[in-house]
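Format notes (please read before filing issues)

Several people have asked whether sequences and structure tokens are stored in separate files. They are not. Every record keeps both together, in the order shown below: the sequence lines, then the token lines. Line labels are part of the format and must not be stripped during preprocessing.
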Amino acid sequence: MTEKMPVLFVGHGSPMNAIEDNEFSRAWRDAGKTLPRPRAILCISAHWVTRGTLVTAMEQPRMIYDMYGFPKELYEVKYPAPGSPDLAEQVRRIIKKTEVHSDQEWGLDHGTWSVLSNMFPEANVPVIQMSLNANLAVGDHYEVARQLKELREEGVLIISSGNIVHNLSLVQFRDFAYDWATEFDTQVKNWILTDDHDPIINFQKQGQAAQLAINSGEHYVPLLYSLALKDEDDKISFFAEKVWGGSVSMRSVRSG
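Then the structure lines:
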């Protein structure tokens, strides 16, 4: 019998979390130790936004260093996890809400490898990524995600990677939080705990704190993938709960 996998949303923040020993990288390492071993990982990262929905289908995904101005050692990080063309084809088959195309070009971006290098440091679990389709309305992303549920029963760990609050125009590189950032992060936490997903999907209606928290949606939308995959009896837990840099929420959520 294959153990049903939990679902994760990881607030990934700075790519430096891949190489620093800090409260977030430690939280990810600790979370990884509590997970059942997956047969494969499907990651939905804020850093792969496309016209249309794509899924990586290569045998060996390449590293993508999609960040600028960081120390040299960050660009030397290797995460040589294999891909899984079979899982990519399964994803293409089970999603009916939108057409999914195979991709041979992308690979693993830092929204994926910065997290997985802490959670699964041996890089011996196959990993694929699915893109965020910029042509879809926010609610459509939630419906697409629901169609992935059967993968949980088949040993696939689904991780979405972004940030609930992500406003880099206001970030300050120190340990503090704006009041509005804490307010919105706490609101979302409470909606998650009460399974009230409507206001999370319709974040544009949630006032000034939401507008400041989500000045572009690509880091927020991955949260919808993890929430859509939650089953009614799944226990919710948070393995990071902090706003850092004023305007980046590192909140990470486990369902199941």
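For reference, the curators noted about this record: DSSP finds eight helices and ten strands in the chain. The chain has a mean pLDDT of 96.
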